[in-house]
Amino acid sequence: MQPKRLLYLSHRWLGVLLCLFFAPWFISGVVMMYVGHPKLTAPERLAHLPALTAPASLLSPQQALQAAGLGERVADLRLAVASAGQAVYLVTPAPTAAGAEQPKGKKGRRKADTVVVDAHSGQVLNAFDQGAAMVSATAFMGGRTGLVYAGTVTEDAHTHSKALDPHRPLHLVHTGDADGTWLYVSSRTGEVVRDAPAVERNWNYLGSWMHWLYPFRGNVFDPYWSDIVIWLSVAGTVVVLLGLVNGLLRWRFDGHYKSGSRSPYQSRMMRWHHVYGLLFCAISLTWVFSGLMSMNPWGVLNGGAPPGKTEAMQGGPLKVNGDFMAPTEILQRNGNASVRELQWLRLLRKDLVMVNGPHGMQQLLDARNGQPYVPTQDEIVTAAARLRSEPITEVALQREADFYYYSREPHTMSGGEKPLPVLRLAYADEHHTVAYVDPRTGSLVQQVDDARRVRRWLFSLLHSWDWLPLLNHRPLWDVVMVGLSVGGTVISLTSLVIGWRRLRTKARQWRAARRTPAMG
Fold first, then answer.
1. CA-CA distance, 481 to 517, in Å (whole number)?
2. CA separation (Å) from 438 to 287, 306, 443?
3. Residue 102 falls within a domain, yes or no?
4. What is the per-residue pLDDT across 45-88, written as a single tens digit (0 to 9) for each?
5. Residues 333, 292: one domain?
6. Which strands, in side-by-side order, build the sheet including 148-153?
């Protein structure tokens, strides 16, 4: 077979097969621009938590840990009305030794070891049944009645996230509200860990569920899901390249065919596929290749700087002791109705407590005297110098987003609000590491090194077009993305129509050949 003939046939039949995936990818990508996979964001969680009250029976953190038989060193400590409608301490003990093996969760993933402690009795609450889940859901919905328990799920179309692994199985509760919201409640901590309104659930099937090939999750294909996505993306990259070569070979740049067209195809569908293929092959190649990079195939994007020494920067894990101000006093000072959660932290070698209110309201206090705490730039730089062994070469207060540090809408994959202004610190290491620190709290927000910069270019930029001149001038970004997606969809759908017609013709020829008697 001649090389050109092999090229045409390879692109034709491989393209017909892969466009079964390409067309849904383009369509679902547009949906994901506006509706993401269901998730419970931190502001949503805080807005739905009941207000904390300050009864005399409320234990201090030290009293609760002692009553529960837990050590004084913790990695995370929160107080909220979060589990079965009651105030609880949610405790993540600090590792007992560096490198100690942590318990494994589903599919071998590391499993969080959050311990739930009743904030009034100090009793450890180990499991949360149907009744507890219904109370948590009712509290989350502000006391709404008419909620319906829908059983437990290990994993469904709306709960594929790895972050939910420590909470499985999940209790499912239908709220019956105007938004048709479903709530997923942790069987391990009793917290509501995901909300899924009907709009998000329904569009999810046409959006992220289809885009990420989640039909291959939660079934016999689940162990091979990653490989399926990777190899389909590899094959897609190849077929687009073949199509580009094929299209250029068939296009008359210095003349016309007898039809007067620069494309040789008489069929309207074939001509559309040829023309649109040449116009949109670059973006098709960009998107399928960047989708491949999102999977980090075979670890090609691994490497970069070693993890920063965050614990050294902040001064080790929090050590809870009797010097901490009682939560009752903190709540009384701040007004019960305005507080949803207290979180004790170790930041910049100081013991602090974050007072979280609804709608993103926060205040950082000294854990011992309850006075507001605002770190100085010198304190932050001194602490950040312990993050890496190499010296800091640049310190700047950055007031605007940059190419590597920017916010996206909460429903997107990298969604979330990045605080501004932010303190930007550059290090003299071989990986050109830059750390972004919130000047209001001293917490490390993001680190960027050469490997992360490569991932930013090969995935976020090429796949989502996270380019500030576009993002800052919407709807320009929307027009560009939707327009390019329409072009890619036309390529895919014309390929499917062409393939279907050719298969139908081949089937007719095959049936005719079977009916025709052999000539003697």
1. 56
2. 33, 21, 6
3. no
4. 999 999 998 888 999 999 999 999 999 999 999 999 999 999 99
5. no
6. 148-153, 170-174, 182-186, 192-196
Cα(195)–Cα(181) distance, integer angstroms? 7
Query: Is residue 64 domain-shared with residue 175, that is, in the same domain?
Result: yes
Residues 354 and 487 placed together within one structural domain of the fold:
no
The answer to whether residue 184 sits within a structural domain is: yes
State whether 249 and 389 are in the same domain.
no
Q: Which residue has the tokens 């920017």?
A: 406
Q: Indicate whether 47 belongs to any domain.
A: yes
Beta bridge partners of 149: 173
Token code pair at residue 165? 């692994």
Under DSSP, is residue 297 helix (H, G, I), strand (E, B) or coil? Answer: helix
Q: Are residues 454 and 506 in the same domain?
A: no
In whole angstroms, how large is the CA radius of gyration of the chain?
Answer: 28
The residues near 328 (Cβ < 8 Å, ≥ 6 apart) are 54, 55, 56, 58
**pLDDT on residue 336:** 56
Angle at 340 between CA 335 and CA 343, to 5 degrees: 105
CB atoms within 10 A of CB 147: 20
188 within 8 A of 169, measured Cβ to Cβ = no
Is residue 389 domain-shared with residue 421, that is, in the same domain? yes
Same domain flag for 249 and 366:
no
Number of CB atoms found within 10 A of residue 441's CB: 20
In a domain, 193, yes or no: yes
User: How confident is the model over 220-266, as pLDDT tens digits?
Assistant: 999 999 999 999 999 999 999 999 999 999 899 988 888 889 999 98
pLDDT per residue as tens digits for the range 124-147: 998 899 999 999 999 999 999 999
Task: Give the pLDDT score at 517.
Answer: 66
Q: Are residues 26 and 47 in the same domain?
A: no
Q: How far apart, in whole angstroms, are the C-alpha atoms of residue 99 and residue 135?
A: 38
Tokens of 212: 């990420």
What is the total count of domains within the chain?
A: 3
Residues 6+ apart with CB under 8 A from 513: none
Q: Are 422 and 436 in contact (CB under 8 A)?
A: yes
* Contact between 105 and 178 (Cβ < 8 Å): no
> What CATH number is associated with residue 426?
3.10.450
The b/e string for 361-382 (b: 16+ C-beta within 10 A; e otherwise) is eeebbebeebeebebeeeebee
3-state class (DSSP) for residue 202: helix
Q: Is 86 helix (H, G, I), strand (E, B) or coil?
A: strand
Q: How far apart are CA 183 and CA 197, in angstroms?
A: 9
What average pLDDT does the structure give for the chain? Answer: 91
Of 481, 482, 497, 483, residue with least CA distance to 272: 497
Sign of the alpha-carbon torsion through 113, 93, 380, 41: positive
Q: What is the largest CA-CA distance in the chain?
A: 106
Residue 518 binned pLDDT confidence (cut-offs 50, 70, 90):
low
CA distance 463 to 466: 8
What pLDDT score was predicted for residue 6? 87
SS3 173: strand
| Structural domain that includes position 420 | 374-466
